[in-house]
Amino acid sequence: MKIDIIGDIHGCFTELEQLTKELGYSWESGVPIHPDGRILGFVGDLTDRGPNSLKVIDVIHQLVVVHQVALYAPGNHCNKLYRYFLGNKVTISHGLETTVAEYKALSTREQKKIRKKFMDLYEHAPLYQVTDGGKLVIAHAGIRQDYIGQTHHKVKTFVLYGDISGAKHPDGSPVRRDWAKQYNGDAWIIYGHTPVPEARQVNHTYNIDTGCVFGGKLTALRYPEFQLFSVPSTMPYVPEKFRTSFD
């Protein structure tokens, strides 16, 4: 299992293309394919906030569903977009408005096509990916050791939103416990969700969401080598979006 796992993309297609090229992938066929058979992994939150969410959906759909040369675990933004496409009542905010604006600018025919691609991608994805014989887990916001192998409601909440306490910060964002400090499993958990200035390794966990959409960078973890690769963001830097304290 040789896989390059990429953090939260959030519609930053330019950085995705640049990072995959840096990792040695060729885009000759229109999607990133590695000449040595390496595959890509995605920790979710493909869309929202960034400029090219629908382009990101198209490429990840081709990789995961059409060519079956990538692994994808959905994030909370993916879940919300899925509910929007189902016709459920969702609040179009916190980034979803950018994806919806892109979607509504399309013709009805193109809308149907991109909606079907995303629905197929989401519906065929497990809640989290367990691979390499159980040695590697890709989960959007992480996962507790005792939750691996389970998919009940508490697991889904944890995987999509993190270890939320129910309390809120002054800005309205949820207070999240630092579950990685308590993790003592042997499997490596690769996740994102919470933007950090630099990829953060604690015990057998790696947070690789380095806030590309907030002006940080897009980061990939090469497994099993555990090498980090990143490219700088083209987006404006928003320092308050990054978590720097974990006490």
SSE diagram, text form:
Elements: E1 3-6, H1 13-22, E2 39-42, H2 53-66, E3 70-72, H3 76-86, H4 96-104, H5 108-123, E4 129-131, E5 136-138, H6 153-161, E6 164-168, E7 174-176, E8 188-191, E9 200-202, E10 205-207, E11 217-223, E12 227-232
Parallel strand pairs: 1-2, 2-3, 5-8, 8-10
Antiparallel strand pairs: 1-11, 4-5, 6-7, 9-10, 11-12
Helix pairs in contact: 2-5, 3-5
Features:
12 strands, Purple Acid Phosphatase, chain A, domain 2, five-stranded mixed sheet, alpha/beta, MPP_PrpE-like, Ap4A_hydrolase, phosphatase activity, 28% helix
Mean residue pLDDT: 96
Roughly what percent helix? 25-40%
Tell me the radius of gyration.
Answer: 17 Å
CATH superfamily membership? Metallo-dependent phosphatases
Main beta sheet strand tally, sense and closure:
5 strands, mixed
Widest beta sheet: strand line-up: 3-2-1-11-12
Intertermini distance: 35 Å
Question: What is the 3D form?
Answer: globular
Count the DSSP helices: 6
Structural domains: how many: 1
The poorly predicted ranges are none
Structural class: alpha/beta
- In terms of DSSP E residues, the strand content is 15-25%
- H/E element sequence: EHEHEHHHEEHEEEEEEE
CATH class: Alpha Beta
> What is CATH's topology name?
Purple Acid Phosphatase, chain A, domain 2
CATH structural architecture: 4-Layer Sandwich
The total strand number stands at: 12
